[in-house]
Amino acid sequence: MTANETVQEKLTRELDATHVEIIDNSWMHAGHVAMKGISATEGTHLRVIVVSERFNEVNLIDRHRMVYQALASEFAKQLHALEIKTFTPAEYQNASF
Amino acid sequence: MSSSTQSLQEEIQNEIKAHKILVYSKGTKTEPRCGFTVETMQFFDRYGYPYELVDVLENPEKRQALTEMTNWPTLPKVFINGQFYGDTDILDEMAAKGELEPLLKTTFEKA
Lengths: 97, 111
Fold this sequence. Notes:
The complex is a heterodimer of chains A (97) and B (111). With 97 residues, chain A is of the alpha+beta class. Chain A has helices at 3-14, 60-70, 72-76, 89-94; strands at 19-24, 45-51, 81-87.
């Protein structure tokens, strides 16, 4: 399983996500100062969209904490930066992109 | 809790109190060293209120103390009026909902 597949799997399993999208922006940051000594070329800078019923009635900061928590072990490995968008299924249906 | 952790937490509390908008960042205003730090600066530049950056890139102990205090693993970390507001992912959504402008307004009214 690639690093990003693991991220997908963890978000789906640990947050009961009904939809997960991952956009890998790692190439934009390769070689920047914080990336010294890290050889990974994927999975370091991600944008994720997570849709889960579990976000219902949860404020934004805590939703993001839930996502960070689900990916704690990925942060200990290759993951360095995460841009997060969270939706409940109802919010996602009404979202405009 | 070790005494150095405690003094770091005090240092952070004092910084948060001293600045109405405080960003713990990677790099400084003149030399930002992370794209997200730049993004956060651009975000606040749009509003015109003064904000301060504290560079913690090369201070792992303080970064750790901040992570523990906020239960939030990444930088930058934004504090407004002493409250933690995460990063521009949160602020962008607050701005889109029209929640940010009133918050900044009341924050800076209480001079």
